Amino acid sequence: MPSSLWREVWILAAITLGSLALGALTDRYFIVAAVGFGLYILVQLQSLYALYRWLTRRDQQEIPEAEGLWGDTFNEIRKLVRTAEHRQDELAGQVDRLQSVAAAMPDAVVILSGQNEIEWANTTARKLLGIDYPRDTGMRLLNLIRDPVFSAYLRKRNFIEPITLEAPQVPVPQVSIQIIPYGRSQKLVMARDITQLARLEQMRRTFVANVSHELRTPLTVLGGYVETLSQMPKIAGDEELKKHFATMADQADRMQRLVDDLLTLSKLETTAPQRHDEVIDVAALVSSLKDMAMIVSGKARHRIETEVDDSLFLRGSKDELNSAFSNLVNNAVRYTPASGSITLRWRKTAHGASFSVTDSGEGISAEHLPHLTERFYRVDTARSRASGGTGLGLSIVKHVLARHDAHLEIDSHPGQGSTFACLFPVSRIANQTT
Ligand code: ADP
Q: Which of 92, 233, 296, 417 is most buried, judged by most C-beta within 10 A?
């Protein structure tokens, strides 16, 4: 028991004894006791009131001083308040540090409430997004960035991919915006100036396109000469020379295919989708792809089958889709051993339509699957080159599909064959040819 409590017990005992003694002297036990205990209660009430006043006006007043049990109680409260103040200072320091880090960041940072209202923004937000903090606090972000792409991005639940906004929606030429949801419904909006990056990317595309274009003519000339020379009796009659010329012709042919694929890729990257609304008879396309596959297969005699829904049409660019689908069919033939089976399917799915190529070929192990659509990524480089691959086929497929709101799904297991499926959304389905 604390000493202050003993003190109170002694005071109460003294009041009781004092009341008994004075009561015996005056014969007024009740009045004497009432006065004694009343005074005691008054002193307690005074301390209680002091505590109440401190609690209700904490900002202006010091914690009251008192004796005994109340004194101890006030001391404990004082300690609690000091610890709380210390922690508050620490937290405020941390918040200050975080805010100065965020404020000094080269990227724009904006904190949004659940209703997409601006709660905080750093200084870069003014430069990149035109958001002036604290002036714009409480404003809805959609009122400041009026762009349909951004509105759609902010409203959707999936923020995995960033989006790019261009002037005049933002104060700089190009900004990449990424939203990161946190807490219950708050969002962190991060924006980065990608003008320089976009310029470099554009330079890279133009450079690749120009180089490919410039290489085309000399390669055609070289290929032509090699072919003409190899047919001359002097060379055709010399086995050694004939072999060398055949290799030269092969390599010239390979370079030509590479240049063609690079040009196709550059075109896909640099131009807006053309003839977006062409209605494509995919069943007819599949039939011509089957014919092409049989020619490519040649002596390998693959079993090539088709399963098509001929009432299902697709909206898009026929040339581009033909290029993407033939890349998949070509791969199936090239990576499936002789006499293997290949099935081309065109059918409705729960979410739209799917064109798929299934082969009974060598298959691909899981670690390669996420990289297959990267340029020049090959599971087996020698095998790809030997079969005439450029390493760009699946990149072309990916780009073409993206231009048709579609995506590629690959299901493959080593030794069990592969299925490459192009999945189109319902919005891309057309019901009849025009
Ligand atoms: P490539 O010209 O080398 O075939 P692609 O971009 O078309 O380039 O394909 C990338 C890689 O994916 C290929 O090198 C090959 O390793 C693998 N691949 C593509 N299609 C198939 C398939 N049907 N079966 C097995 N592997 C495949």
A: 417
Distance between CA atoms of residues 292 and 297, nearest Å: 9
Residues linked to residue 403 through DSSP beta bridges, in sequence order: none
**pLDDT tens column, 327-343:** 999 999 999 999 999 99
Pocket test for ligand 1, best of 327, 331, 356 (most atoms within 8 A of CB): 331
pLDDT digits 0-9 by tens, 140-185 = 988 888 888 888 888 877 788 888 888 877 888 899 999 988 888 8
- The rounded distance, in Å, linking the Cα atoms of 253 and 302 is 25
Residue 331 alpha carbon to ligand 1 centre in Å: 6
State the Cα–Cα distance between residues 378 and 393, nearest whole angstrom.
10
End-to-end CA distance of the chain: 96
Is the CB of residue 359 below 6 angstroms from any atom belonging to ligand 1? yes
pTM: 0.69
Q: Are 151 and 141 spatial neighbours (Cβ–Cβ below 8 Å)?
A: no
Report the DSSP beta bridge partners of residue 83: none
Nearest atom (ligand 1) to Cα of 377: 10
